[in-house]
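Record filed here:
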Amino acid sequence: MLASLAVAQVPVADAGQAEDVRIGVNRLNLAWLSRSDQERVLGEIAANGVTHARLSLSRPVDRSIDALEIANRLGIRILLEVQLTNKSYFPETARPRTGFGRIWDIHRLSALDLDLYRTGLRGALRRIDALGIRLEAIEPGNEINLGAYNGDLLVYPRAGDRTPRGIADLADRAAFERGLDNYLEAVRITGEEVRGTVHSRDAIIVSAGLSDLTAGEADKRGMERLDPGEVIALLRERGIDSFVDAYGIHVYPGQKSASVLADRVKGLLDFCQPSDAGKPCWVTEWGIANTARACPVDDRRREGAVRAMRAVFEQLVDAGRLTAAFYYDWDTEPSYSLWRCGRLSPAGAIAIEPTGTDAAPANDAMLHPAPAAGAVPMSP
């Protein structure tokens, strides 16, 4: 394990930086849009009062950077998610693990070429820096505890079979642990390269947002996953606390009663601690589904759940255990999107309210149970 190696530690950002609460939205894969569409989408985000956005560094990198330049110009503060699934970071001989047509084929984290990663990231950061873009935070990787984004975790030929409940049950535990060792090095490299910039040298380093997919949902989807708390513990054993300012986590609890929802979120984030006792969390994705498609949008059921989520987030913020929350998604996911029928939905307005905003609290009577919508919405 890398924890036993003598490695130079990169200083993390000043503790005071993590005290400000960031409320934002996700708009990933803007590299797939034309420049005019990037301008339109980011313009809509800024015009509706969103101050922070989680954007991605993905292929094609030049167009990813175009989107960052637009966001920066519009005054949007950027959390940059670096997609470690980018094939440019892997040797040509590496072959992705199959998703059997149910999910995308994905490379194994254990096969990540750290030299290629450093070279690619350094080049991107230098171009970002030359444009005068400041990154508020950087998040290397995404949902590395789920087979959808980490090829060291299997996707089964068929869905419905029982999946692992812990690391001891994985089909190839050794490969997964090699991947975690590689991941720690990738985080260390990320910190070194970010500290070498002019405009982003104080950027907050956030560990990969971990999936909250339950074991039961993993069985239905036929893919391996591990609980976020178990993976954070494994990363802490390897020394990740020396290289990050916060832990990333994703929260997709479904529409439940306010009390059940609060218990679910607090339980999921039990490893998040104030900075004087550990590391706080950044919720880099959270979402509540609304499957309605008609216009104008009927967002009443989702409103209550979103209000309840914001209430529990406020409690965690007050306790110093949570310092950022980014809603997924702005406009690309039909069930999760906040941008509906050409405008910000009512639930969306609640989702992006600054912390401390006076709003009527949610209660159980406001919420109506609906099928939980687990996440795996983002493309690699």
The chain has one domain: 21-366. The first helix runs from residue 35 to 47. The mean pLDDT is 91. The beta strands are 22-26, 52-57, 77-82, 135-140, 204-205, 247-251, 281-286, 322-327, 339-340, 343-344.
